[in-house]
Amino acid sequence: MVQSHWLRQENLLGGGWEVHFEAGWLTQECSGEQPHRRVDRKHCPQRENGRGRSGTAEGGRESAFPAPGLQGCHKELQPGPEAHQGQGPAGHALSEPGSLWPENAGSPGCLKLEKSASNPRPMPWKDRNSSGAEAAQCQESFVQAASDASRAIDINSSDIKALYRRCQALEHLGKLDQAFKDVQRCATLEPRNQNFQETLRRLNTSIQEKLRVQFSTDSRVQKMFEILLDENSEADKREKAANNLIVLGREEAGAEKIFQNNGVALLLQLLDTKKPELVLAAVRTLSGMCSGHRARATVILHAVRIDRICSLMAVENEEMSLAVCNLLQAIIDSLSGDDKQEHRGKEEALVLDTKKDLKQITSHLLDMLVSKKVSGQGRDQALNLLNKNVPRKDLAIHDNSRTIYVVDNGLRKILKVVGQVPDLPSCLPLTDNTRMLASILINKLYDDLRCDPERDHFRKICEEYITGKFDPQDMDKNLNAIQTVSGILQGPFDLGNQLLGLKGVMEMMVALCGSEREMDQLVAVEALIHASTKLSRATFIITNGVSLLKQIYKTTKNEKIKIRTLVGLCKLGSAGGTDYGLRQFAEGSTEKLAKQCRKWLCNTAIDTRTRRWAVEGLAYLTLDADVKDDFVQDVPALQAMFELAKTSDKTILYSVATTLVNCTNSYDVKEVIPELVQLAKFSKQHVPEEHPKDKKDFIDMRVKRLLKAGVISALACMVKADSAILTDQTKELLARVFLALCDNPKDRGTIVAQGGGKALIPLALEGTDVGKVKAAHALAKIAAVSNPDIAFPGERVYEVVRPLVSLLDTQRDGLQNYEALLGLTNLSGRSDKLRQKIFKERALPDIENYMFENHDQLRQAATECMCNMVLNKEVQERFLADGNDRLKLVVLLCGEDDDKVQNAAAGALAMLTAAHKKLCLKMTQVTTQWLEILQRLCLHDQLSVQHRGLVIAYNLLAADAELAKKLVESELLEILTVVGKQEPDEKKAEVVQAARECLIKCMDYGFIKPVS
């Protein structure tokens, strides 16, 4: 017998069944003990009645769904005598109008919808859709089947047949989750039906397997690449795949899977597409894969090639350039830093030397600096990478070979960038930050040199480059030479001063000032501004160049030159610094200059680069107290400066920071010793004079005005600048400003609300030593009075601990020690995690040290901090250890006359004795005065101290019967009785209750009896 179609259902309907559809036969076979039956359709009684199968279940409820195994027609066929004419299994009616049954026409095994001749009335929509769904399933049109079933369900949401048919159709369509919901609904309607339960189990298994495959890293990686490399894939899918790939590349397991699944080659294909979003995704994924893994970084560097990486970084797109810069940084870190992978034994011998690769990267970055094909953004990123990776991070490291290599092979290239004049046709593509970044690089390289011969070599290269540019026939070359000197003066100033002394340099500057070309005047004035930083040079220029600058200022109509000339005059006018007696110009002249600077600063019609010079002018002029007082009252000018500080031009950061330092008087002021002042006057030496407006009241007023104008948001924005232009010196200035702003406790809430707490953390962790101390002190001031959860939200609070602990150093001044202890006290009261962090930062010895201090406030702050710290188990273990006097110190501090110290020490002792019985016994051994001190605490005038004393007494009574007996025999029992008999009011309730609990404990021991 040839079967045209068959399906198998096992163990669902009482045994294993096979259903065969043949051309003229419907065959039912039992795989169990049931007899084999064969039905001739021509003589089928149901067929003769013209009725198909559908109907009601035994309970009268409409049921009958097809068995899940019969995926073609899904007919339930049961063997045995109970299947009688006109009925299906278990009493299901097999003769209803509009039934479905296999027809012998067309394709075998198909179902046909027919209407009974004896009953021509149309079927209801519910039955028609339900039956239509069944027919569509047999024709394997599962979409249509699902649609028909859905229409039936819309009419009757409890139509169990339609639900089950839709479940089967959806299963075939691969929509397992939707199929599962339908069969779940069926199982809810008929919970005892084994078919539904079995289908639920089967679908659940299929869904779990599908999810396992779908979320396995290998398949995810493969699928992402398929979507990304398929040109016909949707934009949304492609974007999601790219983002997922980036996230996967940042995880160690994901990066390894991408690498093992030929990911590097596929990422190279993405780079070849030249589509920005795909190239960006590939670069970011590669960056994640390189992080902390030397082997992968080496393979990726050689696979992608350094020249290709540099060409990608050279593009005009800022986002792309930054992403490639991060990739190169990740490669450099992996090649030069510690490898996350541990190499042991023979593997260690196979680890390649990375110096050659690092040298190749440095060489390509230097070549980028002078290439016309490189965009301004690309040049900036190349300079950033050189700034970060060439100079030594710690001068204690002896090896400065990278700096020597760059000086020998790249210093001329860096000087070429510094000497670029933007208005010249031959100028390289630049941004506002490029020349400043190059100046900073020169400064870092010069500082990284170890000896005089190396510095002499550096200077000679600079001299040869500058003198080689001087050419009487070519004015553009002269401009480049002066611009180079100007750039060096912004970097290593000592070197710049030496270059100013070269024959013809100063003369060329003055000559260019008198040139008719505006470009020449622009470069010369800028150079004069930078040259006049040193008082001796400024005096020379005041003598020789002020009249010339004034002439240019009066005659030129170019705003750019005018503002620079003004800044030159500002700088020369402030050459005396804060010294009121060393004013260079006549009274009122500096105020006029400052007024003009503020006017230009507020003029938004002028370009940002030019307005930057107005801030530069104010940075010099605000050394004068009259100028800074006027400036902080000019709110529009202040806000204009803050807005400029938030722009992409980072060259303004130092000027803004300097201006704010001047306005807040946060620069270092030398202590004036009266005797030395008298001596100086006697010897007719100049004595610096303080301006009347530099007194404390004026400074406080200026700080309040700055806070009101929104200085904190500007500072927070400046701190976030991810650029080499945010130098350690600039960070120090910002830290000084923050410290001055935090001085008044009433202002600290405003600072926290505007994000000052978060902004201070990076300043306290990185920068100059002075800057880190100032920032840590500002953090201590905030931490001492603010809720740490608000001031330092999330995990940031743990970063605050180290800067505060650093202030406990005995070399710091007393105020810093005191406020650091207050801050740590506040933090240690928040959570045990913070106490653990403080303990791990080794703060405990310092805190103990200050508990010995003679200074009352320091001792009080340290004792309060210890009171919170003793809640930590590891701190308690330190007190439990033998051979130390920690507990003795706390007991003796309980006997001090200072109420606050007593309160804190008694609190610490109460918690220690409550935590460990051993400490109760130890307390009686550390000093003979312990009982006297305890009695004093229990009789103290301050209720908080008295309460702590009574808690200590209770802990001692509860610890040991012998110790309790000793206490009862002393005067302590009388004290407890007197306190316990008091009438408890609101204030004394806790104290009286504690005394009564002590008496109850004595009664429990049987030492005393209640009066009946």
Automatic annotation (TrEMBL):
InterPro entries according to UniProt: ARM-like (IPR011989), ARM-type_fold (IPR016024), Armadillo (IPR000225), TPR-like_helical_dom_sf (IPR011990), UCS_central_dom (IPR024660)
Sorted UniProt keywords: Cytoplasm, Developmental protein, Differentiation, Myogenesis, Repeat, TPR repeat
Domain of life (superkingdom): Eukaryota
GO MF terms, alphabetically ordered: Hsp90 protein binding
One term under GO cellular component: A band
Annotated spans, Disordered: 31-137
Skewed-composition ranges (Basic and acidic residues): 34-51
Protein name: Protein unc-45 homolog B
Organism: Callithrix jacchus (White-tufted-ear marmoset)
Taxonomic lineage: Eukaryota, Metazoa, Chordata, Craniata, Vertebrata
Gene that encodes the chain: UNC45B
